[in-house]
């Protein structure tokens, strides 16, 4: 009976439920991805899905594996920041689909400060954060004062910021290509310091303090949300705006502040990525970078937990990078985007999975209790 | 000037179709953020139909086949939202967002696979439809009349009549305002919501094919539909969920979108020498400003976004 109670409590545990639901999403996502690969070309499907899941393990030498693990981590950093931005806003009842746009302005501000103004890295990073805060603040203020749905305003701002940043950075692009100048050739001071972290990844020069910083910020976000009065107030506002107002909380200020912080997080992620010099901005980009949208996947896959977001971000980036290695004569790299989009879609069912597990656990516990009761009755009867 | 009117009308047609789709879905009580993805799917269906119809097919057949293909794929794709939002009570914003990402990714994967299967060196995600596209256009003294414009007007009239003059439409609206009350008088809320979402799928899919045939003869599916689905949602909100107002709003937005295509034709605009990015931004900026002023007294269906649970009364 004790065991029965225990197994019931395991499935009722919120953490276990979230983890199981996330793993289920991943599994179904990969399975459907595999089926799609099979439909496109059955010959290479198994190989391709293996490549996607393996990512850097695809390289035979240990040194190369470490180096590409480093690359994956470098790209995981902005994803962690974007997913933090989204989950932070979501906890306050706001759907920050504008993380993509905030990411764009973060990239624009940091690269402009680095390339055009020749600022050192910390100034560039702060510029990115400020730009993101402003953009997030606009959505927040529109929501608080003008009742504009934050999803719509964020989408509009995504496109506005994309075109604005393209125009801004067109001034600092290479003559012959649409890409911005490299940090290494223009302003070495703007590159984030590595503090020797690169050594651990076969001298990968892109591995910088951004990686530990992202982990630290995740922990800070967790502490703010779960352990402070400020976080509690924000969550209360998200739960019921009117109740929060009635309790004397400044609900409008809270909404704006949430979007400011969310915007700052996403934009900081962009700064932490573009200031490594890993990639240059393409000034002819005609689509908002997928980073912000993948952040949604990471946030929900991580069970809306800042610590979970670290792992889920890594996973999403892992398969996205893996997608780049699939055999291009048969498949396209977008199959990884397809899988992560599927995973987001499946995350919509998490609530259903959880209530299903709850019901199952309840039913089992009930059956166990009933059996135990009967056994006890029988036992008692026997004694007599 | 003729060009400006022509582009305004065609973009307005897209916005009317898609915004009406959103309107049906929201009146039934389901927020459809996934219109963008539905548009991509409709566009894909239509483009494939144009690509694979044999050359020399008579124009009316082409039009009919393309419209049916676009509507059909849009309908099937919108089932994803319907099942998740209505049966599984999923977060509608999340599922809609996923559908947008999924639509673009799936279309890209599919088109690329198709292109590489035809020619190993072709890894683009572009479909061309120069010849079949001509079936849609009638040239009247320099003005390219597009049959889709007529379709948009028909859809508008039908939507108005359906929503306000038929039993079905009024019941649909009831489900978006107060599903419990609707249920208590014997209306099947789940069925009505399915109807709302599927109609939005049909109209969204049609809007998608209209969008990719407006002004261009090939489409790169990697780009999706560049936020047009969201622009349509803004039109819907600006139009206060009413078909007639949506049409007016669509014309305004269509005008600004068209300016981006033809501004070089106007001397005074060309003289300003603004970068093209400014014109690209314009529809989004305008919609944001207009939304800021019009959202205050929102007439959104009361129960939208809240999954209906029969057990909760």
Keywords:
heterodimer, A: 384 residues, 16 helices, B: 313 residues, two-stranded antiparallel ribbon, 71% helix
Describe the biggest sheet of chain A?
none
Structural class of chain B: mainly alpha
- SS elements, strand count of chain B: 4
Secondary-structure content class of chain A: mainly alpha
* Mean pLDDT over all positions of chain A: 84
How many strand elements of chain A?
0
Tally of separate domains of chain B: 1
What is the percentage of strand-forming residues of chain B?
Answer: under 5%
Radius of gyration of chain A: 24 Å
What is the straight-line distance between the termini of chain A?
23 Å
Helix content of chain B: over 70%
> Distance between the terminal alpha carbons of chain B, to the nearest Å?
57 Å
Run of helices and strands of chain B: HHHHEHEEHHHHEHHHH
Shape estimate of chain A: globular
Largest sheet of chain B: 2 strands, antiparallel
Q: How big a fraction of the residues of chain A is strand? A: under 5%
The count of helical stretches of chain A stands at: 16
Order of helices and strands of chain A: HHHHHHHHHHHHHHHH
